[in-house]
Write a sequence for this structure.
């Protein structure tokens, strides 16, 4: 059954690719050696990560006093970073799950790496609730386990506990979704490995995958159901994170717009991080034929869309703060714009509202350098958004005698930088050990969306009319080798005899 | 003695058309190995729809019940607490607050239950060996497995039929 692609659509896989080419291109980074640039960046990220781990151990050993928190500002960089990382993590699941449900073929080239990004981002995010507790060795107290305190149970009415269940579910389900997709690709890598130790390792990782029809049947069903589950999960998890603020009484926090606003912001920052990573990865691993300009353009369109939604949310907040007539809410926003943290608010507004509007212009969204710079600006802007929401609302709330400033210590900053380092360490390792493209999925779209359809590997062409199985997209070379066909057949007869 | 014949193709569409014509001739195809799912192959070689989604639903339902019963026990029956004066005597008063966790546990049980069932049913688990007859089937080749005894024709006729559908290699095991 042929799928007819409209000719107006750009091909999603460029170049004359055969199925084998896809396997070769994606397995090359696994089979080859990393270059010195990889080691250099890995070293930098590793140093940052070690610095961060040191700061975390210092915090756990000495106490939360080494951070800049005080009685008024109980949450600052810790929760800002938590929400920032969780937000980034949502793009991966969105790309995998939501775009699968919408049958968007362009997701195939980026979903594996986007899901990897999600998993590493959620790991970074999960660090913060852990270390901000103070007594992390009692972290298991959040779980409803029978205990000696009369069986004191955690408070199921609290969004802080909802977070525990939401983040753990999100992490484990994302991991499962990612791994189920990886199993057939590990099988491809396994079957190419020659050296015994890598072959053994990839054999174990591939779970003995054979690729027979019933297994693929189940695979597709599981992918579809998991996608259907992961979609409401994305929306629910970030809504629950937003409830940490929305269910409070703090002016600037207690607003019903938070769940959709946070979810849109998460998709926004997540796609920006995917772009940052993909723009570098496609160049370094030579995957420009798979992660094409069209993919970049689509991601920029989503950034423009969600950035605009975030912008509308900001304006709505401002309007309602005035319209409600609640003087505390009104002051909260006056303080954000004109108070001591006005520079953070300005950064947030510029980075998040103005910069994605540039994406309306096709030339800009197809420009790689501008896209890269904008993706970093968006991530900076989203960090400031969470900082503004958290710190400006609580440093000046109801009781004026409690008003105070917040200043981060080097430990606050060190932990944050450390998580960035750790994230890149994990991602760099992933890029050389795991197949970074969903091999089996990209092969399924080659026929319909490859630039020249599916190219046959020449050595095995026996009795086909054409070197290419033409796709309805692009220009398949014309079939005029009918004279060669008869000579091929003669050769084939001989070859068959020899078998 | 089982006599298996493996016919290798280098294109999924060729294999699909070939399978259709072979099934018409009365050949029973035991299995097809491919690097990606071939859409349309299931009805041709007689693969039934999987019931994994039904399993997932059942797991989800149990997860939801587990969450609701659990929270009822913890927050209403065993140790109801006065949290800011909020109602704690009846379950229905707290349902809105319990929804997020109920949803998350439902999704958790659905996803993990289905994933474990999937791996067990496929018999793909860490440490198990692969059963694909040729390592190229995870790269770019497609292999049809046929029991020679199943076909309503003798082996040579079968091989002839396979070659005529466009197979590039025939192997026996």
């Amino acid at each position: 059954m042929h799928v007819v692609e409209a000719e107006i659509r750009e091909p999603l896989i460029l170049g004359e690719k055969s199925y084998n080419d896809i396997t070769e291109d994606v397995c090359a980074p696994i089979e080859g050696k990393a270059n010195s640039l990889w080691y250099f960046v890995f070293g930098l990220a590793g140093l940052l990560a070690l610095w961060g781990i040191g700061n975390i151990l210092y915090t756990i050993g000495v106490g939360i006093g080494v951070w800049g928190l005080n009685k008024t500002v109980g949450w600052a960089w810790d929760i800002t970073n938590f929400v920032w990382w969780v937000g980034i993590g949502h793009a991966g699941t969105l790309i995998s799950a939501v775009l699968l449900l919408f049958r968007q073929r362009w997701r195939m080239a980026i979903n594996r790496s986007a899901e990897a990004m999600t998993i590493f981002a959620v790991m970074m995010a999960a660090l913060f609730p852990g270390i901000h507790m103070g007594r992390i060795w009692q972290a298991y107290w959040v779980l409803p386990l029978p205990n000696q305190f009369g069986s004191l149970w955690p408070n199921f009415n609290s969004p802080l506990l909802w977070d525990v269940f939401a983040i753990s579910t999100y992490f484990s389900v994302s991991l499962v979704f990612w791994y189920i997709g990886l199993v057939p690709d590990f099988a491809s890598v396994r079957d190419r490995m020659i050296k015994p130790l890598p072959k053994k390792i990839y054999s174990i990782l591939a779970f003995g995958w054979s690729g027979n029809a019933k297994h693929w049947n189940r695979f597709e069903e599981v992918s579809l159901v998991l996608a259907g589950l992961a979609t409401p999960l994305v929306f629910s998890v970030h809504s629950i994170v937003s409830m940490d603020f929305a269910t409070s009484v703090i002016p600037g926090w207690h607003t019903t717009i938070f769940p959709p606003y946070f979810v849109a912001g998460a998709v926004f920052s997540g796609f920006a991080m995917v772009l940052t990573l993909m723009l570098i990865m496609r160049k370094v691993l030579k995957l420009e034929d798979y992660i094409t300009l069209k993919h970049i353009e689509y991601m920029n369109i989503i950034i423009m869309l969600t950035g605009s939604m975030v912008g509308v949310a900001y304006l709505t907040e401002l309007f309602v703060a005035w319209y409600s007539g609640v003087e505390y809410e009104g002051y909260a926003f006056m303080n954000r714009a004109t108070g001591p943290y006005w520079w953070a608010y300005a950064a947030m507004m510029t980075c998040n509202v103005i910069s994605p509007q540039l994406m309306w212009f096709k030339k800009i969204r197809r420009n790689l350098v501008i896209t890269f710079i904008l993706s970093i600006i968006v991530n900076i802007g989203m960090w400031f958004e969470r900082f503004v929401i958290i710190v400006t609302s609580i440093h000046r709330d109801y009781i004026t005698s409690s008003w105070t400033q917040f200043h981060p210590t080097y430990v606050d900053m060190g932990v944050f930088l450390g998580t960035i380092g750790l994230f890149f360490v994990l991602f760099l390792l992933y890029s050389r050990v795991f197949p970074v493209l969903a091999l089996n999925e990209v092969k399924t779209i080659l026929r319909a969306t490859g630039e020249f359809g599916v190219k046959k590997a020449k050595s095995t062409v026996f009795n086909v009319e054409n070197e290419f199985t033409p796709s309805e997209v692009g220009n398949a070379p014309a079939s005029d080798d009918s004279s060669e066909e008869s000579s091929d057949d003669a050769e084939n007869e001989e070859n068959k005899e020899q078998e | 003695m089982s006599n298996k014949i493996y016919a290798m193709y280098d294109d999924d569409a060729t294999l699909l058309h070939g399978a259709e014509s072979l099934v018409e001739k009365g050949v029973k195809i035991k299995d097809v190995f491919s690097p990606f799912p071939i859409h349309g192959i299931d009805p041709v070689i007689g693969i039934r729809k999987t019931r994994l989604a039904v399993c997932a639903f059942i797991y989800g339902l149990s997860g939801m019940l587990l969450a609701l019963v659990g929270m009822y026990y913890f927050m209403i029956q065993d140790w109801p607490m006065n949290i800011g004066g909020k109602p704690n005597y009846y379950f229905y008063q707290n349902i809105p607050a319990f929804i997020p966790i109920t949803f998350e546990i439902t999704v958790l049980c659905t996803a993990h239950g289905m994933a474990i069932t999937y791996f067990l049913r496929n018999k793909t688990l860490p440490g198990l060996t692969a059963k694909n007859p040729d390592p190229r089937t995870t790269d770019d080749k497609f292999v049809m497995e046929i029991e020679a005894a199943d076909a309503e024709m003798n082996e040579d006729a079968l091989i002839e039929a396979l070659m005529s559908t466009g197979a590039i290699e025939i192997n026996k095991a």
